[in-house]
Design a protein that fits this description.
Elements lengths: L8 E2 L4 E4 L4 H12 L1 H6 L8 H10 L6 E7 L2 E12 L4 E8 L8 H14 L6 E6 L4 H9 L3 E5 L4 E3 L2 E3 L2 E6 L3 E7 L5 E2 L5 E2 L7 E7 L4
Parallel strand pairs: 5-6
Antiparallel strand pairs: 1-2, 2-3, 3-4, 4-5, 6-10, 7-10, 8-9, 11-14, 12-13
């Protein structure tokens, strides 16, 4: 549900509000930057001091972006965003993270669903994209649960410690798609955080699709 002025989104359990530089938001950013997993996969990892946290928050207000702090019971538990919003092509890219104590409860999926409704509804976008490394098993799982289809690999698209990496790209068009998958054999990918995962889909694949109704 969208607020009357369009600045907030509400779900059954969450409130999504734009970031501000007040103390609660700054502390949430610092907490995210202290979490090794969030810091590795998200730009918030650089915000390790209050001054850097405020700079990161101010950057959430740039053109072509909608960025929300996700709150539950007055506490900020995560973040969800649309970046690179292109109203002409009708495309945007998702970003999200949750603080450790709030994981495993479906909160990220609930927040993503609220922003999807805004994107496909009021913003009239036709395609949402998630780019994530195959080792980022939490993001991969959320994307699959939300019905995003892996389309391929963006070579060298992300810069990480020690070099550039190849994120997998997944999309959710306004009209969901189905099709045949031509892929390499399943292989195990090791997360930087000690988890070995066998993806339910390979990290490199090609999909030929035919459109079907999204709902």
């Amino acid at each position: 549900m969208e607020s009357s002025d369009g600045s907030e989104l509400r779900t059954d359990r969450c409130l999504l509000r734009p970031w501000t530089v007040d103390d609660a938001h700054v502390e949430a950013v610092l907490a995210a930057a202290r979490d090794p997993e969030i810091a590795y996969y998200s730009s918030v990892g650089v915000a390790r001091t209050p001054a850097l946290a405020r700079n990161w928050i101010r950057g959430r207000d740039e053109s072509g972006r909608l960025d929300f702090a996700v709150s539950m019971e007055e506490s900020i538990v995560g973040r969800v965003s649309l970046a690179h919003i292109d109203p002409v092509e009708g495309v945007a890219e998702f970003g999200y993270w949750l603080l450790p104590q709030s994981r495993g409860r479906g909160i990220a999926s609930e927040a993503v669903a609220a922003l999807e409704d805004l994107a496909f509804g009021k913003l009239t976008l036709g395609r949402l994209v998630i780019r994530h490394e195959p080792s980022n098993d939490r993001s991969c799982l959320l994307a699959r649960r939300r019905g995003y289809l892996e389309e391929g690999t963006a070579r060298g698209a992300f810069e990480r410690q020690g070099g550039r990496v190849d994120p997998a790209c997944a999309c959710a068009p306004r009209h969901r798609s189905s099709g045949a998958v031509i892929a390499s054999p399943r292989s195990k990918a090791r997360s930087p955080f000690g988890r070995t995962m066998t993806p339910s889909r390979p990290s490199h694949l090609t999909i030929w699709c035919s459109s079907v109704a999204r709902r």
